[in-house]
Automatic annotation (TrEMBL):
Active site as annotated: 106 (proton acceptor)
Gene3D superfamilies found in the cross-reference section: 3.30.70.260, 3.40.50.1360
Protein name in UniProt: Ribose-5-phosphate isomerase A
Organism: Weissella sagaensis
Pfam families in alphabetical order: Rib_5-P_isom_A
Binding residues annotated for substrate, in chain numbering: 28-31, 84-87, 97-100, 124
Regions crossing the membrane: none
GO molecular function, one term: ribose-5-phosphate isomerase activity
CDD domains: RPI_A
Pathway: Carbohydrate degradation; pentose phosphate pathway; D-ribose 5-phosphate from D-ribulose 5-phosphate (non-oxidative stage): step 1/1
Native organism taxonomy: Bacteria, Bacillati, Bacillota, Bacilli, Lactobacillales
Biological function: Catalyzes the reversible conversion of ribose-5-phosphate to ribulose 5-phosphate.
Subunit structure: Homodimer.
């Protein structure tokens, strides 16, 4: 089975966690596109009543187009459940996110959610984190910050769009991706990064997720709580 149908399988399964009347944080990326598709169907066909809270402008537009009422994170009292994707999840449920350039809003929505669920295909699971680490930074002083990260041996690269221009996030910040042969302890690395002036947030999501839904090659679904 190809990865797409595993993402679809897991995405549709995750959408079943959403109940009528919920405020739902909606993640970003190609796996979550299936969650949005499934929720849109239920809104249109079953009259599901939910409030969606987006983790990116792209998600806001995609969900709204399918008839899901979208609200900003500050316009709801609380978020009952957030369903998002991830780039890599290790055996302690620590994750790297941000491959889709949405890590800041994803983390803002996650920390304001009663419950966080991640939906992945099996290829995202790893016994330790090896994926590049996205870091969102303020444009003013970005070049100096890039050099400081280089000096630390973190092998930074600019996140570029298909025209080779630096990507701007939904908060109009830049993204730098860090590369490690052996990643330092995630919690320590995260604290170090957010203590650097000009760093807004990083893609290490630690002690965030409550449940992980995995679409397996043999089309089974594993759920880890
Ligand atoms: O940026 C993110 O963290 C997204 O959730 C994303 O990286 C997951 O992307 P995918 O579902 O398209 O693999």
């Amino acid at each position: 089975t190809d990865q797409t149908s595993l993402k679809k399988l897991a995405g549709y399964r995750a959408a079943e966690l959403v109940e009528d009347g919920m405020v739902v944080g909606i993640g970003s990326g190609s796996t979550i596109a299936y969650v949005i598709e499934a929720l849109g169907k239920r809104v249109a066909e079953d009259g599901l009543k939910i409030k969606g809270v987006p983790t990116s402008d792209k998600t806001r537009r995609t969900a709204a187009k399918l008839g899901i009422p979208m609200h900003n994170v500050d316009d709801v009292d609380h978020i009952d459940i957030t369903i998002d994707g991830a780039d890599q999840i290790d055996e302690n449920f620590a994750a790297i996110k941000g491959g889709g350039a949405a890590l800041l809003w994803e983390k803002i929505v996650a920390v304001n959610s009663k419950r966080n669920v991640w939906v992945v295909d099996g290829s995202k699971l790893s016994d330790h984190l090896t994926h590049y680490l996205p870091v969102e930074i303020i444009p003013y002083g970005a070049d100096q910050l890039f050099k400081r990260l280089e000096a630390k041996g973190y092998k930074p690269t600019w996140r570029l769009d298909q025209n080779g221009n630096p990507v701007r996030t939904d908060s109009a910040n830049y993204l730098i991706d860090l590369h490690f042969n052996q990643m330092p302890a995630p919690f320590t690395l995260g604290r170090e990064l957010t203590s650097m002036v000009g760093v807004v947030e990083h893609g290490l999501f630690l002690n965030v997720v409550d449940q992980v839904i995995v679409g397996r090659e043999d089309e089974t679904i594993d759920i880890f709580d």
